[in-house]
């Protein structure tokens, strides 16, 4: 049957096909962006729970090989998982128990040394060869100090934060035990809930993401230990005080890629400048640069291989976003989670490419 002459033409029929495709792509991208924004907002609203889950996953990626080996030795899985949790608690608690008071005392001294180093650096910048105005420098420093101390020391807020932190740690330990004990079964249950045609792809994505997470955490742990040992030895040989807190700071900062190593190295140089003068500071600076160059160009490629392939720009954005959303804890967990997500998506792309088959020439 033909359409009558007065019948209206469908509104999209006259539009170019390219414009329609662009509209579909833009609409899909907008839906994805809104969904991601809502997910990030929801996760930020339950920040302690999100960080507890992330911490449990990161710790499980380190401890799962140990638990699997104990289970293969016919130890009940629950006992093997409990042993893994106890190993983590001992590794974290033993140094704090042995060196805790010394660390606390020296960290107080470290704060004073850093303040004095910043004052000396400011004096050099104002009176040095660079054309820096003293008022501009003071304004920038005042804004920085205000950002660090935003909110002030409210006793009620401090008590709430302490309770929240203890609760998050307890939740992370319980989740760690459950993941170590039943992680394989939990993942199998999740995969079985999917349509059958998607199960193999989901398994590939899970395996790829978990392998990337495990490789990243093991590699970063070893790199952090080598960094801390190298820089700590250099500080000891130069005679810089506060070697213990600076070494501890270097170890922890290594888990925040790029930014952490820079901040820890700057702290070591400032303490050397205040304690022993410019010559010691230059020696420490050379040692820090040497250790970090050896780590970046030799150690990381050797240890991590192709486990994680992230551009430095992606790492910086991930660390910055994690820090904005959840402070230092967010900066610590952001890069490994991004690395795992990247490997999972790479596995998805590879699975789709293999299903598509070779293209005709």
TrEMBL record:
<keyword id="KW-0472">Membrane</keyword>
<feature type="transmembrane region" description="Helical">
    <location>
        <begin position="221"/>
        <end position="244"/>
    </location>
</feature>
<keyword id="KW-0813">Transport</keyword>
<feature type="transmembrane region" description="Helical">
    <location>
        <begin position="79"/>
        <end position="100"/>
    </location>
</feature>
<feature type="transmembrane region" description="Helical">
    <location>
        <begin position="250"/>
        <end position="275"/>
    </location>
</feature>
<keyword id="KW-0812">Transmembrane</keyword>
<feature type="transmembrane region" description="Helical">
    <location>
        <begin position="49"/>
        <end position="67"/>
    </location>
</feature>
<protein>
    <submittedName>
        <fullName>Predicted PurR-regulated permease PerM</fullName>
    </submittedName>
</protein>
<keyword id="KW-1133">Transmembrane helix</keyword>
<keyword id="KW-1003">Cell membrane</keyword>
<dbReference type="Pfam" id="PF01594">
    <property type="entry name" value="AI-2E_transport"/>
</dbReference>
<feature type="transmembrane region" description="Helical">
    <location>
        <begin position="159"/>
        <end position="180"/>
    </location>
</feature>
<comment type="similarity">
    <text>Belongs to the autoinducer-2 exporter (AI-2E) (TC 2.A.86) family.</text>
</comment>
<dbReference type="GO" id="GO:0055085">
    <property type="term" value="P:transmembrane transport"/>
</dbReference>
<feature type="transmembrane region" description="Helical">
    <location>
        <begin position="315"/>
        <end position="339"/>
    </location>
</feature>
<dbReference type="GO" id="GO:0005886">
    <property type="term" value="C:plasma membrane"/>
</dbReference>
<feature type="transmembrane region" description="Helical">
    <location>
        <begin position="20"/>
        <end position="43"/>
    </location>
</feature>
<dbReference type="InterPro" id="IPR002549">
    <property type="entry name" value="AI-2E-like"/>
</dbReference>
<feature type="transmembrane region" description="Helical">
    <location>
        <begin position="282"/>
        <end position="303"/>
    </location>
</feature>
